[in-house]
Amino acid sequence: MVDHLFLRACRRQPVPRTPIWMMRQAGRYLPAYMAVRKRASFLELCRNPDLSCEVTLQPIDEFGFDAAILFSDILITLPGMGIEVEFPESGPKITNPVRTSAAIAALHVPEPVPYVMEAVKKIKHALADRVPLIGFAGAPLTMLTYAVEGGGSKDYAQTKKLLYGSPKDAHALLDKLARTCATYLEAQAAAGADCLQIFDSWGGIVSPGDFREYPLRYAKLVIEMLRASPARDVPIIYFVNGCAPYLDDYASSGADVLGVDWRVAIDEVRRRVGTGVALQGNLDPGALFAPPAEIRTRVADILARAGSTGHIFNLGHGVLPETDPEHVRAMVTAVKELSASS
Q: What per-residue confidence (pLDDT) applies to 5?
């Protein structure tokens, strides 16, 4: 088996240079992806293993990232639970938001999504061990926000009404979401995923005390279930968008790698979380609108702050659709050249 840079960095082992991948690296900023989208809707892409494989490999072939990430969506697991999801161009919509005790009680933990497992197997075969494959799922709190709000939100009023007004119901829903997440991730690992990322995109909407009670508590539960499963040795990344207020608690998640957004300096994160975890991040996605020379300067700053061991270069959130692919190339080149010479 190939001793991949990315997996070595996940385990805080020495590497000759810093590995790099990018959240949403297969997506709308790529002309090749948009060409595929002319043939299929977003949901059709997710449900078709051949198309999912095709778009997953596009950024690997184009830019030479050090890891591939399964092309799918965090909400794919919800229909199996009994929560119907639509994907219009304006963003995902839940047609039956979950806001009552009865609605929560009616949900169940589903079997893993079959077409996603088939896609994982196809992608692993197509990659031919060039780079590792990252599987992923939405974290319980983030999934709760979509299920309860009925889609995206600016103020998360329905979410907080449930968390603070009906905490017993909130915990019941989070428990089902955690077990769904763990089952789904374990199946991805069994199908061939080399690493698993838990996306808590909206984990940062609560106070530090409520972070411990809700996002962190149930991310820990997912990780504990994975550690007790056949996937126990697969590296786990936990990414909280808006992690800065929670750094004193962040490393207690049990994950091997903590994802860091761009709102906090990565050396500050290292100081606060210690050396027992690897870090991933944390270039502002908007910085890719800068000229290539400025991108290189910003890359150099993050590399210097992060150090050479236990760091995976990434954006602090997903790449923006308007990004020039040549600026992505400039970032990848800078990471590879500067980290190899340091």
A: 96
136 forms beta bridges with: 197
Whether 73 is catalytic: yes
Rounded Cα–Cα distance for residues 144 and 198 (Å): 14
For the chain, list the domains and their CATH numbers: 5-341 (3.20.20.210)
> 302 with 335: CB under 8 angstroms?
no
- Collect all residues with Cβ–Cβ distance below 8 Å to 47 and sequence separation of at least 6: 115
- Any catalytic annotation for residue 248? no
- β-bridge pairing 93-94 and 85-86: antiparallel
**Which is the catalytic residue, given 12, 73, 263, 301?**
73
Catalytic residue flag (residue 146)? yes
Of 8, 47, 66, 146, catalytic: 146
**In the predicted structure, residue 1 carries a pLDDT above the cut 60:** no
Cβ proximity of 323 and 285 under 8 Å = yes
- pLDDT tens digits, 3-32: 899 999 999 999 999 999 999 999 999 999
> CB of 281 within 8 A of CB of 315?
yes
Q: 17, 24, 217, 296: which is the annotated catalytic residue?
A: 24
Q: Using the 8-state DSSP alphabet, how is residue 212 labeled? A: I
